[in-house]
Amino acid sequence: MPALEISTNVKIDEVHLEPIFSQASDAVASIIGRPKNVRGNRTKKRSPGTLRPVAARRAEPSEPTDALPQADARRSPPSLSSHEAPVVAALKMVMVVLKGSVPISFTGTEDPAAFAQLISMGGINSVVKRKLIKSLGDILQTHLSIPPTRFFCHVIDTTAGRPPRPKL
User: Fold this and answer.
1) Is the pTM of this model over 0.85?
2) pLDDT in tens, 51-103
3) What is the 3-state secondary structure (H, E, C) of 14-50?
């Protein structure tokens, strides 16, 4: 799963963040060649011995019911603040973190600027880096008014330099 972390000195309290998250995850997924989400990729059935996520497990008769968390029907689900992505965003295969109001000095000034760090397991080469930096720079300019000349992106491929593993 690629992870993109963007820090900027722009205040993001009044900015609608969903388009930034959506466009950034779309750009990273399409340029690197990773799936954006897992819904379309679940074609295989689970074998009987595989584990299911905790939320999908049901209490078995042999399990004590007091050990399982009980839902309180009177409580409403917690509301999300403007900086939290909806629950559906947890299914995306690209993680995007956006931090605003971070003290940043770039070229000796505190004009709007951003620093991004993208970490991926494979799929990175010089052409991909250029496309990512251009695309992310355009997104930041559109939504946060950060000029591409005041945007720095550090791209890390965690598999770089490793010999390819044979597939079994």
Assistant:
1) no
2) 444 444 444 444 444 444 444 444 444 444 444 433 334 345 899 999 999 99
3) CCCCHHHHHHHHHHHHHHHCCCCECHHHCCCCCCCCC
Question: Domain coordinates of the chain in residue numbers?
Answer: 1-39+80-168
Q: CA 16 to CA 151: how far, in whole Å? A: 20
CATH 3.30.429.10 given to domain 1-39+80-168: yes
Biggest alpha carbon–alpha carbon distance for the chain? 66
CA pair distance 10, 99, nearest whole angstrom: 9
Residue 111 makes CB contacts below 8 A (sequence gap 6+) with: 150
Residues ≥6 apart with Cβ < 8 Å to 101: 9, 10, 11, 12, 13
